[in-house]
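Practice problem: predict the structure.
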Amino acid sequence: MTLHPQVIKWLEIRKEAELPIENPTIEQMRADPANWLGYAGPMATDVNERHTYFTSPTADLHAVIFTPKNVKPNAAALVYFHGGGWIFSWTLRYAPQMSNIASDTGAVVIGINYQKAPEHPFPTPFNDCYAGLLWVRDHAAELGIDPTKIGVGGDSAGGNLAAAVALKAAHTGDVALAFQMLIYPCVDMDFTRQSYIDHKVGYGLEAVGMQWAWEAYVPEGERGNHYAVPFKAVEMRGVAPAIIALAEHDVLRDEGVAYGEKLASAGVSVTTKEWPGMVHGFFGHGMYVDAAYDLRKWLSEQILRITNG
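Answer:
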Protein backbone atom coordinates (compact mmCIF):
# COMPACT_ATOMS: atom_id res chain seq x y z
CA MET A 1 0.00 0.00 0.00
CA THR A 2 1.16 3.54 -0.67
CA LEU A 3 1.73 6.09 2.06
CA HIS A 4 -1.41 7.52 3.61
CA PRO A 5 -2.09 11.12 2.45
CA GLN A 6 -1.95 12.35 6.05
CA VAL A 7 1.49 10.76 6.45
CA ILE A 8 2.71 12.43 3.25
CA LYS A 9 1.59 15.79 4.64
CA TRP A 10 3.24 15.09 7.99
CA LEU A 11 6.53 14.15 6.32
CA GLU A 12 6.44 17.47 4.45
CA ILE A 13 5.86 19.37 7.70
CA ARG A 14 8.68 17.51 9.40
CA LYS A 15 11.09 18.25 6.56
CA GLU A 16 10.34 21.96 6.82
CA ALA A 17 11.12 21.86 10.55
CA GLU A 18 14.47 20.07 10.25
CA LEU A 19 17.57 21.73 11.65
CA PRO A 20 19.27 23.98 9.05
CA ILE A 21 22.64 23.01 10.52
CA GLU A 22 25.35 21.03 8.78
CA ASN A 23 26.73 18.23 10.95
CA PRO A 24 24.75 19.22 14.09
CA THR A 25 25.99 18.19 17.51
CA ILE A 26 24.07 15.84 19.78
CA GLU A 27 23.02 18.85 21.86
CA GLN A 28 21.66 20.65 18.79
CA MET A 29 19.84 17.52 17.65
CA ARG A 30 18.27 17.18 21.09
CA ALA A 31 17.05 20.80 21.13
CA ASP A 32 13.67 19.89 19.56
CA PRO A 33 13.12 23.02 17.46
CA ALA A 34 10.14 21.37 15.79
CA ASN A 35 8.19 20.97 19.06
CA TRP A 36 7.62 17.23 18.81
CA LEU A 37 5.34 17.34 21.85
CA GLY A 38 2.95 19.45 19.83
CA TYR A 39 2.70 16.73 17.18
CA ALA A 40 1.19 14.23 19.59
CA GLY A 41 -2.16 15.93 20.17
CA PRO A 42 -3.90 16.95 23.40
CA MET A 43 -3.64 15.17 26.70
CA ALA A 44 -6.64 13.43 28.23
CA THR A 45 -8.47 15.71 30.66
CA ASP A 46 -9.74 12.98 32.99
CA VAL A 47 -6.38 11.92 34.43
CA ASN A 48 -4.19 13.34 37.18
CA GLU A 49 -0.47 13.85 36.60
CA ARG A 50 2.10 13.42 39.36
CA HIS A 51 5.88 13.52 39.35
CA THR A 52 8.30 11.58 41.49
CA TYR A 53 11.85 10.22 41.55
CA PHE A 54 13.33 6.81 42.20
CA THR A 55 16.89 5.50 42.42
CA SER A 56 18.40 3.24 39.79
CA PRO A 57 21.82 1.58 40.18
CA THR A 58 23.52 4.74 38.88
CA ALA A 59 21.19 7.76 39.22
CA ASP A 60 18.08 9.34 40.66
CA LEU A 61 15.52 9.25 37.86
CA HIS A 62 12.34 11.11 37.05
CA ALA A 63 9.04 9.26 36.67
CA VAL A 64 5.65 10.71 35.74
CA ILE A 65 2.47 8.99 36.88
CA PHE A 66 -0.87 9.32 35.08
CA THR A 67 -3.80 8.16 37.20
CA PRO A 68 -7.41 8.25 35.96
CA LYS A 69 -9.53 10.57 38.09
CA ASN A 70 -12.10 7.80 38.50
CA VAL A 71 -9.50 5.07 39.03
CA LYS A 72 -10.78 1.90 40.67
CA PRO A 73 -8.95 0.10 43.48
CA ASN A 74 -6.32 -2.43 42.39
CA ALA A 75 -5.99 -0.95 38.94
CA ALA A 76 -3.78 -2.34 36.22
CA ALA A 77 -0.52 -0.55 35.45
CA LEU A 78 1.62 0.19 32.41
CA VAL A 79 5.30 1.04 32.95
CA TYR A 80 6.25 2.98 29.82
CA PHE A 81 9.68 3.50 28.25
CA HIS A 82 9.74 6.21 25.58
CA GLY A 83 11.35 6.03 22.16
CA GLY A 84 14.05 8.20 20.65
CA GLY A 85 16.84 5.85 19.61
CA TRP A 86 18.09 5.55 23.22
CA ILE A 87 19.58 9.02 22.57
CA PHE A 88 16.74 11.52 22.25
CA SER A 89 13.48 12.53 23.87
CA TRP A 90 12.12 12.49 27.40
CA THR A 91 9.15 11.08 29.27
CA LEU A 92 6.83 14.08 29.11
CA ARG A 93 7.07 14.24 25.34
CA TYR A 94 4.81 11.18 25.54
CA ALA A 95 2.33 12.73 27.96
CA PRO A 96 -0.55 12.77 25.42
CA GLN A 97 -0.10 9.11 24.51
CA MET A 98 0.32 7.95 28.11
CA SER A 99 -2.62 10.00 29.35
CA ASN A 100 -4.82 8.72 26.50
CA ILE A 101 -4.05 5.12 27.42
CA ALA A 102 -4.65 5.79 31.13
CA SER A 103 -8.01 7.34 30.27
CA ASP A 104 -9.06 4.54 27.91
CA THR A 105 -7.99 1.66 30.15
CA GLY A 106 -8.45 2.96 33.70
CA ALA A 107 -4.86 1.84 34.30
CA VAL A 108 -2.14 3.80 36.06
CA VAL A 109 0.57 4.67 33.52
CA ILE A 110 4.08 5.36 34.77
CA GLY A 111 6.63 6.87 32.39
CA ILE A 112 10.31 6.26 33.17
CA ASN A 113 12.94 8.80 32.08
CA TYR A 114 16.03 6.64 31.66
CA GLN A 115 19.58 7.89 31.03
CA LYS A 116 20.61 8.26 27.39
CA ALA A 117 23.33 7.07 25.06
CA PRO A 118 25.95 7.80 23.88
CA GLU A 119 26.90 9.26 27.27
CA HIS A 120 25.23 6.29 28.96
CA PRO A 121 25.30 3.23 26.66
CA PHE A 122 23.97 -0.24 27.42
CA PRO A 123 23.47 -1.51 30.06
CA THR A 124 22.64 1.79 31.80
CA PRO A 125 19.32 2.63 30.05
CA PHE A 126 18.20 -0.99 30.40
CA ASN A 127 19.16 -1.09 34.07
CA ASP A 128 17.28 2.17 34.64
CA CYS A 129 14.13 0.76 33.08
CA TYR A 130 14.33 -2.48 35.01
CA ALA A 131 14.84 -0.51 38.23
CA GLY A 132 11.74 1.48 37.29
CA LEU A 133 9.71 -1.71 36.99
CA LEU A 134 10.93 -2.91 40.37
CA TRP A 135 10.09 0.48 41.89
CA VAL A 136 6.53 0.19 40.58
CA ARG A 137 6.27 -3.35 41.94
CA ASP A 138 7.52 -2.26 45.36
CA HIS A 139 5.15 0.75 45.47
CA ALA A 140 2.08 -1.01 44.11
CA ALA A 141 -0.02 -0.27 47.21
CA GLU A 142 0.92 3.40 47.19
CA LEU A 143 0.13 3.64 43.46
CA GLY A 144 -3.19 1.84 43.92
CA ILE A 145 -2.35 -0.93 41.49
CA ASP A 146 -2.69 -4.69 41.45
CA PRO A 147 0.86 -6.13 41.37
CA THR A 148 -0.40 -9.03 39.23
CA LYS A 149 -1.59 -6.61 36.53
CA ILE A 150 1.61 -4.73 35.77
CA GLY A 151 2.71 -4.53 32.15
CA VAL A 152 5.60 -2.85 30.37
CA GLY A 153 5.55 -1.02 27.08
CA GLY A 154 7.43 1.27 24.77
CA ASP A 155 7.87 2.46 21.23
CA SER A 156 10.92 2.03 18.99
CA ALA A 157 13.95 2.12 21.32
CA GLY A 158 11.45 2.05 24.17
CA GLY A 159 10.04 -1.11 22.62
CA ASN A 160 13.53 -2.58 22.73
CA LEU A 161 13.77 -1.69 26.42
CA ALA A 162 10.30 -3.09 27.15
CA ALA A 163 11.11 -6.36 25.37
CA ALA A 164 14.40 -6.65 27.26
CA VAL A 165 12.76 -5.85 30.61
CA ALA A 166 10.11 -8.48 29.89
CA LEU A 167 12.83 -11.03 29.18
CA LYS A 168 14.66 -10.30 32.43
CA ALA A 169 11.45 -10.32 34.46
CA ALA A 170 10.74 -13.82 33.13
CA HIS A 171 14.30 -15.03 33.57
CA THR A 172 14.58 -13.82 37.18
CA GLY A 173 11.00 -14.24 38.36
CA ASP A 174 11.19 -10.77 39.92
CA VAL A 175 7.85 -9.70 38.43
CA ALA A 176 5.15 -11.80 36.78
CA LEU A 177 4.28 -9.29 34.08
CA ALA A 178 0.75 -9.26 32.72
CA PHE A 179 1.84 -8.08 29.25
CA GLN A 180 4.51 -6.42 27.14
CA MET A 181 3.36 -3.73 24.69
CA LEU A 182 5.82 -3.26 21.83
CA ILE A 183 5.20 -0.45 19.35
CA TYR A 184 7.41 -0.88 16.24
CA PRO A 185 10.24 -2.11 18.48
CA CYS A 186 13.90 -2.26 17.43
CA VAL A 187 14.88 -5.73 18.60
CA ASP A 188 17.56 -6.90 16.16
CA MET A 189 20.73 -5.54 14.58
CA ASP A 190 20.13 -7.22 11.22
CA PHE A 191 20.08 -4.32 8.76
CA THR A 192 19.63 -6.60 5.73
CA ARG A 193 15.93 -7.33 6.28
CA GLN A 194 13.68 -6.36 3.37
CA SER A 195 11.97 -3.56 5.28
CA TYR A 196 15.36 -1.89 5.76
CA ILE A 197 15.98 -2.09 2.03
CA ASP A 198 12.49 -0.94 1.00
CA HIS A 199 12.39 2.02 3.41
CA LYS A 200 16.03 3.03 3.48
CA VAL A 201 15.28 6.74 2.98
CA GLY A 202 12.26 9.00 2.80
CA TYR A 203 10.02 7.49 5.47
CA GLY A 204 10.98 9.45 8.58
CA LEU A 205 13.28 6.94 10.21
CA GLU A 206 16.13 6.23 7.81
CA ALA A 207 18.21 3.08 7.82
CA VAL A 208 21.49 4.91 8.43
CA GLY A 209 19.98 6.73 11.41
CA MET A 210 18.74 3.52 13.00
CA GLN A 211 22.11 1.86 12.52
CA TRP A 212 23.86 4.90 14.04
CA ALA A 213 21.56 4.74 17.09
CA TRP A 214 22.24 1.03 17.61
CA GLU A 215 25.99 1.64 17.46
CA ALA A 216 25.70 4.49 19.97
CA TYR A 217 23.64 2.38 22.37
CA VAL A 218 25.28 -1.06 22.30
CA PRO A 219 29.06 -1.44 22.71
CA GLU A 220 30.53 -3.96 20.29
CA GLY A 221 31.23 -6.47 23.04
CA GLU A 222 27.58 -6.48 24.15
CA ARG A 223 25.94 -7.14 20.79
CA GLY A 224 25.31 -10.77 21.65
CA ASN A 225 23.58 -9.83 24.91
CA HIS A 226 19.86 -10.54 24.69
CA TYR A 227 19.03 -7.67 27.04
CA ALA A 228 20.68 -5.33 24.52
CA VAL A 229 19.39 -7.14 21.40
CA PRO A 230 16.25 -9.05 22.42
CA PHE A 231 16.15 -11.09 19.21
CA LYS A 232 19.30 -12.84 20.46
CA ALA A 233 17.33 -14.43 23.32
CA VAL A 234 17.27 -18.21 23.35
CA GLU A 235 15.07 -18.80 26.39
CA MET A 236 11.66 -17.16 25.90
CA ARG A 237 9.35 -19.52 27.72
CA GLY A 238 7.27 -17.78 30.33
CA VAL A 239 7.80 -14.32 28.86
CA ALA A 240 4.79 -12.02 29.21
CA PRO A 241 2.08 -12.01 26.51
CA ALA A 242 3.03 -9.61 23.73
CA ILE A 243 1.01 -6.85 22.09
CA ILE A 244 2.90 -5.78 18.96
CA ALA A 245 1.95 -2.80 16.78
CA LEU A 246 3.76 -2.16 13.49
CA ALA A 247 3.83 0.39 10.68
CA GLU A 248 3.86 -0.79 7.07
CA HIS A 249 6.47 1.67 5.84
CA ASP A 250 9.09 1.30 8.55
CA VAL A 251 12.61 -0.11 8.51
CA LEU A 252 11.69 -1.97 11.73
CA ARG A 253 8.59 -3.65 10.34
CA ASP A 254 10.15 -7.02 9.47
CA GLU A 255 12.02 -7.51 12.75
CA GLY A 256 8.81 -6.75 14.66
CA VAL A 257 7.06 -9.51 12.73
CA ALA A 258 9.97 -11.89 13.26
CA TYR A 259 10.15 -11.17 16.99
CA GLY A 260 6.46 -11.90 17.38
CA GLU A 261 6.92 -15.18 15.53
CA LYS A 262 9.88 -16.10 17.74
CA LEU A 263 7.88 -15.40 20.90
CA ALA A 264 4.95 -17.40 19.58
CA SER A 265 7.20 -20.37 18.74
CA ALA A 266 8.22 -20.37 22.42
CA GLY A 267 4.59 -20.62 23.49
CA VAL A 268 4.10 -16.93 24.28
CA SER A 269 0.72 -15.40 23.45
CA VAL A 270 1.24 -12.78 20.73
CA THR A 271 -1.21 -10.31 19.20
CA THR A 272 0.19 -8.36 16.26
CA LYS A 273 -1.39 -5.66 14.12
CA GLU A 274 0.13 -3.69 11.26
CA TRP A 275 -1.11 -0.25 10.20
CA PRO A 276 -1.13 0.15 6.40
CA GLY A 277 0.17 3.38 4.95
CA MET A 278 1.88 4.38 8.20
CA VAL A 279 5.51 5.23 9.00
CA HIS A 280 7.68 4.86 12.06
CA GLY A 281 6.65 7.18 14.87
CA PHE A 282 2.98 7.60 13.95
CA PHE A 283 1.99 6.80 17.55
CA GLY A 284 3.08 10.36 18.32
CA HIS A 285 1.63 12.15 15.27
CA GLY A 286 -1.93 12.66 16.52
CA MET A 287 -2.17 16.29 15.41
CA TYR A 288 -1.72 15.24 11.79
CA VAL A 289 -2.41 11.50 11.50
CA ASP A 290 -5.75 10.07 12.64
CA ALA A 291 -4.29 6.56 12.83
CA ALA A 292 -2.29 7.67 15.90
CA TYR A 293 -5.56 7.59 17.85
CA ASP A 294 -6.63 4.32 16.23
CA LEU A 295 -3.37 2.83 17.47
CA ARG A 296 -3.82 4.19 21.00
CA LYS A 297 -7.38 2.84 21.13
CA TRP A 298 -6.28 -0.57 19.88
CA LEU A 299 -3.46 -0.78 22.42
CA SER A 300 -5.91 0.14 25.18
CA GLU A 301 -8.32 -2.54 24.01
CA GLN A 302 -5.56 -5.16 24.16
CA ILE A 303 -4.51 -4.09 27.65
CA LEU A 304 -8.12 -4.32 28.83
CA ARG A 305 -8.54 -7.73 27.19
CA ILE A 306 -5.52 -9.10 29.04
CA THR A 307 -5.93 -7.42 32.43
CA ASN A 308 -9.68 -8.01 32.65
CA GLY A 309 -9.41 -11.59 31.45
